[in-house]
Amino acid sequence: QVQLVESGGGLVQPGGSLRLSCVASGFTFSSSVMSWYRQAPGKEREFVASIGWSAGSTRYADSVRGRFTISRDNAYNTMYLQMNRLKPEDTAIYYCKAVAPGRIDAWGQGTQVTVSS
How far is the C-alpha of 100 from the C-alpha of 81, rounded, in Å? Predict the structure, then answer.
């Protein structure tokens, strides 16, 4: 059974940092392309960042490039999102997504990030 579990969200002041984690199971994590998406209240879900299976290929949304860093540890089936210099507009539910061989296309349940003073 494919499972993605996010953690690390919370309340942080503007300018602060958080690190999100996504632990995967039920598929070959090392062969997957992993991504982070987010959805703010009243808005569509949007792409944040993605990372290829070897971690050598990363992409970022313009709104987070230079502030967020995506990474993965295939030994622990875990993906991370280091978020620095957070802004109120980064407030959203953050979801991880996996695409892998065997028609794997799965989402986690999400973790809430709130940036507020």
Answer: 19
Closest Cα to residue 94, out of 32, 34, 54?
Answer: 34
Q: What is the pLDDT of residues 80-108, one digit of tens each?
A: 999 999 999 999 999 999 999 989 999 99
Q: For residue 73, what are its two tokens? A: 């540890």
Residue type, 7: S
Tens of pLDDT, residue by residue over 41-83, are 999 999 999 999 876 799 999 999 999 999 999 999 999 999 9
53-82 b/e (C-beta count within 10 Å ≥ 16 → b): beeeeeebeeebeeebbbebebeebbbbbe
